[in-house]
Design brief:
The chain has about 350 residues and is α+β, with helices and mostly antiparallel strands. The chain contains 8 helices and 17 strands. A hairpin with a 2-residue loop joins strand 14 and strand 15. Helix 1 packs across helix 2, helix 4 runs antiparallel to helix 5 and helix 5 packs parallel to helix 7. InterPro entries: Cas12f1-like_TNB, RNA-guided_DNA_endo/Transpos.
């Protein structure tokens, strides 16, 4: 199953439409707050229905507000909604279609009526939107919200993946090479040195130690914040490079090692301090935006097995040698090729 998140702008909605949406956003906030306050004050139980909601929102929107309020209350207890809330409707109560001239429109209820409004379909979302319009995909909850002077909508599109003709992109994350990537069967690979990441860790670890010895705890905390920003920027750059590499090939699917498996099986002590999770998150959401599926695979023995014959080999720093078939390969690329060949579980959010 492929899940693609669509976030796009409405194209030139009328003034009356924008005013009604703004009013709906405030009513949505008030509906959620009404539920939270009622539960906190003991006015009613969690079985509250739209019969208790006294406003002009369509009942489908009221029901969605109740569901969201329940979720917020179960996590945080008493909640105060300070701002207007993006108002939402479940998957069964909105639709997407095209006009006679091919314009894609989203139809959803609000207060006075259903509104059918054109959306901007940029290149990255043409395929999933086309699947949805043709009835070859499913949709999830629709949210409508304002940013500045513009109005946006967001929803997910889900469809079964066609695995025929896919190009498997195996990704190995490590210390010596932060990314080792192989496009299986294409003869193409990419290695990215881990030197910059190691330099950042060494630099800021040394600064923290010096400041700790001097008792400058506030300055030490600021150093930690700077390190986090450097790491985040590096992870953004790395994930963008991966997506650009994958986009060269037809129907790419990115395969990465299961995060928990990496942590449990790695002999590198720094695996627990390095931001694997953030890097994988960036890879995943950038792949999702590009319409590329991501799978997590079993990480066991990816560094020990020969990617050509499956036998156990030996590794000497960057070199891998198979004792069975005699194949020599860069060790990290051998691992990424093993990852590419394994079937995984979809993790694209």
């Amino acid at each position: 199953m492929v899940t693609v998140t669509i976030t796009t702008k409405f194209h030139n909605p009328s003034l009356s439409r924008r005013k009604e949406w703004q009013h709906a956003a405030r009513l949505y906030r008030d509906t959620k707050q009404f539920c939270i306050d009622g539960w906190e004050n003991g006015d009613f139980d969690k079985s509250v229905t739209t019969a208790s909601i006294d406003n002009d929102l369509y009942s489908a929107i009221q029901n969605q507000a109740i569901r969201e309020a329940k979720a917020d209350h179960s996590k945080d207890g008493e909640v105060r909604y300070r701002e207007s809330q993006p108002f939402a409707v479940n998957n069964q109560n909105w639709e997407i279609d095209t006009t006679e001239n091919g314009t894609v429109v989203v139809g959803s209820p609000c207060i006075s009526q259903w509104w059918y409004t054109p959306i901007e379909v940029y290149d990255d979302i043409v395929d999933p939107v086309d699947r949805l319009v043709k009835g070859d995909a499913n949709k999830t909850r629709l949210q409508i919200y304002r940013r500045g002077d513009d109005w946006f909508c967001t929803f997910n599109i889900e469809y079964d993946a066609d695995t025929s003709g896919e190009t498997a992109i195996g990704v190995d994350i490590g210390e010596r090479h932060i990314l080792a990537v192989t496009a299986y069967g294409e003869g193409e690979s990419m290695l990215v040195s881990g030197d910059e990441a190691k330099y950042v860790r060494r630099k800021y670890r040394s600064l923290r130690e010096s400041l700790s010895e001097a008792g400058a705890l506030r300055a030490r905390n600021r150093v930690g914040d700077k390190e986090q920003r450097r790491i985040k920027d590096l992870n953004h750059k790395l994930s963008r490079r991966l997506i650009r590499f994958a986009e060269q090939f037809e129907n790419p699917v990115i395969r990465i090692e299961d995060l928990e498996g990496i942590r449990e099986n790695s002999s590198w002590s720094g695996v627990h301090s390095w931001h694997f999770h953030q890097l994988q998150q960036f890879m995943t959401y950038k792949a999702e935006r590009a319409g590329i599926r991501v799978e997590e695979v079993d990480p066991s023995r990816t560094s020990q097995e020969c990617s050509a014959c499956g036998s156990m080999g030996t590794r000497d720093e960057d070199h891998f040698l198979c004792s069975e078939c005699g194949r020599g390969r860069h060790a990290d690329l051998n691992a990424s090729e093993n990852i590419a060949q394994r079937e995984g579980e979809p993790c694209t959010a």
